[in-house]
Automatic annotation (TrEMBL):
Residues 253-262 have a biased composition (Basic and acidic residues). SUPFAM superfamilies: PUG domain-like, UBA-like. Residues 253-283 are annotated as: Disordered. This is UBA domain-containing protein. Keywords: Coiled coil. It comes from the Eukaryota. Pfam families: PUB, UBA_7, zf-C2H2_OTU1_C. Residues 111-152 form the UBA domain. Residues 182-214 form a coiled coil. Signal peptide: none annotated.
Length: 411
């Protein structure tokens, strides 16, 4: 039986003529074609007479229009293939040879089905793109042309008008789509574009969600580290405060023992024997005339600041302002001892009285640092030759401790 179609050896598609094989080769770069006795399928819709060249195309037509009755006219339309070259000759080479022989032939715009062209233009496609789609899709149907546009929308020459030799112009006279089919096709294209956009938006949303989760984890970890550091700092401050309180109680106990011993001495009573409460740690017997160790200046400063905070414990801001003001006075004298303006304070100054003067222990602290009252108590003055830098440093350390320790003077 003579061949009635050409089959592409690369993809298996059946083509009705040499021209279709050439067009297929141009579109796909496939070059392995052979003659086949299998005819190209031709299913004609019984309702609208639309031809379909494959089962897939007929199913698509049924889905769009609801027409499900088709007449198989494959054998009626099958015609022997007229080949000018041998069966085994590569069809692409034959096309190239024909093009070489007709180099001088005039190139013109191919003729396409005008109704198809108008329908595609009404969908929003340019004339050049619609003409190219109809020409390279075989001018078979509006659906095939539309699918060709979707598949080749990224081609660099998709908007260029196609040109063919004048001898290869073909006529397209197949029935056009109904207005209903045109609307369905346009709606399908819009739906496809919408779904593609939705998928892209979903992908971007997933990426943004991943980024939000990552940033949230980093913030939670940073917050946890900050809370751990704050907890450790508070524990250290509480430990320091307990140790300070323990030392203060020990000093008070020692002072009471010394006062008691002094009273017994004045009354002429013998020294009290130590209580045998801790036999494992014998305590040396105190001598009656043992001199009492006076409190150091640093201890006096600390006690002065503690008294100030206790006396004004209901106003933390006022106490903090007083400590910062005293620290400023001490720092100025320690860094610039030669400037008299930093070593002389007018007691009647309203700012000084508001911040330090009227508070219990404020002036006493400055006197412990070396300041003296002069001019009948009008000024506090620290002579240049009486500046004791170690004492000023101790005063600054005590003030810093009182400012930064939230438990200072609480117990």
């Amino acid at each position: 039986m003579a061949g009635v179609s050409l089959q592409c050896g690369d993809c298996g598609v059946l083509l009705k003529s040499v021209e279709e094989a050439q067009q297929h080769a141009e579109l796909t770069n496939h070059s392995n074609f052979s003659e086949s006795t299998e005819a190209v399928l031709n299913l004609v819709c019984a309702s609208c007479a639309k031809p379909c060249r494959s089962k897939t195309e007929s199913d698509l037509h049924t889905k769009r229009t609801g027409h499900n009755e088709f007449v198989d006219k494959t054998l009626e339309s099958a015609k022997p293939i007229a080949l000018e070259v041998s069966k085994d000759v590569d069809m692409l080479d034959a096309a190239d040879a024909t093009a070489s022989a007709d180099q001088t032939e005039e190139m013109v715009v191919p003729e396409v089905n005008q109704e198809f062209l108008e329908n595609l233009e009404s969908m929003g496609f340019s004339k050049a793109k619609a003409t190219r789609a109809l020409h390279y899709s075989g001018n078979s149907s509006l659906e095939v042309a539309t699918e060709w546009i979707v598949e080749h929308e990224n081609d660099s020459n998709v908007d260029e008008m196609p040109l063919v030799p004048i001898s290869s112009k073909s006529e397209a006279s197949k029935p056009s789509l109904t207005p209903e089919e045109i609307k369905i096709k346009a709606q399908e294209l819009k739906e496809r574009a919408r779904k593609k956009k939705e998928e892209e938006e979903k992908r971007m949303e997933r990426e943004r969600e991943k980024e939000r989760i990552r940033v949230g984890k980093e913030l939670l970890e940073a917050k946890r580290i900050e809370e751990d550091n704050e907890r450790k700092r508070i524990m250290a401050l509480r430990k320091a405060e307990k140790e300070e309180e323990k030392r203060a109680r020990e000093k008070i106990r020692q002072k009471l023992e010394e006062d008691k011993a002094e009273r017994r001495r004045k009354l002429g009573l013998p020294a009290e024997d130590p209580k045998p409460t801790k036999p494992a740690a014998p305590v040396e017997e105190k001598k009656p005339m043992l001199p009492i160790r006076p409190a150091t200046k640093t201890e006096q400063m600390r006690e002065c600041l503690r008294s100030l905070k206790q006396a004004h414990k209901d106003n933390d801001q006022q106490v903090k302002t007083a400590f910062n003001t005293l620290l400023t006075y001490i720092k100025n004298v320690a860094t610039k001892p030669d400037e008299e303006k930093f070593r002389k304070i007018r007691l009647s100054n309203a700012t000084f009285q508001e911040r330090v003067g009227k508070l219990v222990g404020g002036i006493n602290f400055l006197e412990l640092c070396g300041f003296e009252k002069i001019d009948n108590g009008e000024f506090l003055f620290l002579p240049r030759d009486k500046i004791d830098i170690p004492v000023l440093h101790s005063a600054g350390n005590e003030l810093n401790s009182a400012i930064n320790n939230p438990f200072f003077g609480v117990l």
